[in-house]
Amino acid sequence: MSAMATSFGIDKALEILGVKTINEGTSTGLNNFSNGDIIESYSPVDGHLIGKVKTTTKADYEEVMTAASSAFKTWRTMPAPQRGEIVRQFGEKLREKKEALGKLVSYEMGKSYQEGLGEVQEMIDICDFAVGLSRQLHGLTMHSERPGHRMYEQYHPLGIVGVISAFNFPVAVWSWNTALAWICGDVCVWKPSEKTPICGIACQNIAAEVFAENNLPEGISCLINGDYKVGEFMTKDTRIPLVSATGSTRMGKIVAKEVAGRLGKSLLELGGNNAIIVTPDADIKMTVIGAVFGAVGTAGQRCTSTRRLIIHESIYNKVKTAVVDAYKQLRIGNPLDENNHVGPLIDTDAVNMYSEALKKVVEEGGNLVVEGGVLSGEGYESGCYVKPAIAEAKPDFKIVQHETFAPVLYLLKYSGDVENAIDIQNEVAQGLSSAIMTNNLREAERFLSVQGSDCGIANVNIGTSGAEIGGAFGGEKDTGGGRESGSDAWKIYMRRQTNTINYTTELPLAQGIKFDL
Ligand code: UN1
């Protein structure tokens, strides 16, 4: 580790998480095989170098796959509830290291410390969920049409699951996938975002500890590092029956095509362009909390971030004033300082995209009611801090249709019935999260009905972000159609087998077919 930042207890956090040397943990403990280029991880908080990680070459990848394949042979034969016990222990370790990991997430990614802790809490919650699920991987039994026959279905593990995760939830989204995949009997190969590789190493260390304590092969959890080229090793690899990928729609389309081309499965969790509809019956106070947290939480870098407020014309000015006033209270700065609401964007490329979006909305005829801007000077040396902005816009502006991963909120006006607002809400390519603020039952039910929101998530009197792990998470259209975490999302990590058993001395054929010999 070089040039370690010393402030905010990060050194201590890294020590607790066992992140020690510059080359550590590029794979499954097969560190000697990591011979690729170096990725340097700089904190967007203060611009300091956190650490360097070697990337995975094709030869390293083959070593990883050998370790994963052999680990799968052991892991798949362990009864699912025993696998659940391992996940329970992993969840316990996360509880112990919650503060350290939350701090690292905050420091490497830039989200507020509270949100870093919240992200680790999501990991703990999915472990608890998976432990219970490890005794509930149920199939159905059916009545056979033939006498003396029994028919049922069972679920078997798929094998090696590839996980590609994004920088914005550098640890939680991996755990949604792995905790479920593990209890299902799969082993995982994880490529974290090249923007947050140290978080990957920290998680790998925690998992490795649990596997070592239980005399299990570390290959159950494998880590590879690098950019899209390393991701391609997995998308092209027929030994990986499922690739779960989180990131941009652009990336998802490439992954989907590659994996489908070899008839593999993909689970995609891609971009969102999430809106809150605010009707004349909305509670304004609740609306402001939901909208502001949704738009500026994680500096607008959640896939569930609120990007559009669709406000009825009769309350438009009132809502606008309330939200603009709330923005005046926002404190932007070091996310490890709990007084601050908004931390930095991930890097200066993200800052450029933010600035570009503000320029474009004005060019298209929009009106900035909260101007935004890039911050500089003391505390903002990394160049990644921006002011959350609000623009009055029209639903069909190109920039409004586009997902900008930054704190830019568009105010859109609707008139007439809630149907008009729903039309605006649905008229974007993405379909992840959506919300309506109303105390009117008819409007709420209309929003949730078949003619309502076309998103994977549709909330009433709750904002668009901050979904609980117990529900299936994901969305439609350009969001990719995948579902992760709760409900029956586990099924994608398993293969279903239908079994018919004949316990007679005859061999009757189905559909009444006679075949006499
Ligand atoms: C993401 O941004 O990729 O619903 C995931 C939320 C979080 C997860 C977001 N629980 O905002």
TrEMBL record:
Highest rank taxon of the organism: Bacteria
Domain Aldehyde dehydrogenase: 37-498
Catalytic residue list: E269
Protein name: aldehyde dehydrogenase (NAD(+))
Presence of the UniProt keyword NAD in the record: yes
Catalytic class of the enzyme: oxidoreductase
Pfam families assigned: Aldedh
Keyword Glycoprotein: no
Keywords attached to this entry: NAD, Oxidoreductase
Regions crossing the membrane: none
Cross-referenced InterPro entries: Ald_DH/histidinol_DH, Ald_DH_C, Ald_DH_CS_GLU, Ald_DH_N, Aldehyde_DH_dom, ALDH7A1-like
Description of how the protein assembles with itself and partners: Homotetramer.
Documented EC number(s): 1.2.1.3
Family membership noted in the UniProt record: Belongs to the aldehyde dehydrogenase family.
CDD domains: ALDH_F7_AASADH
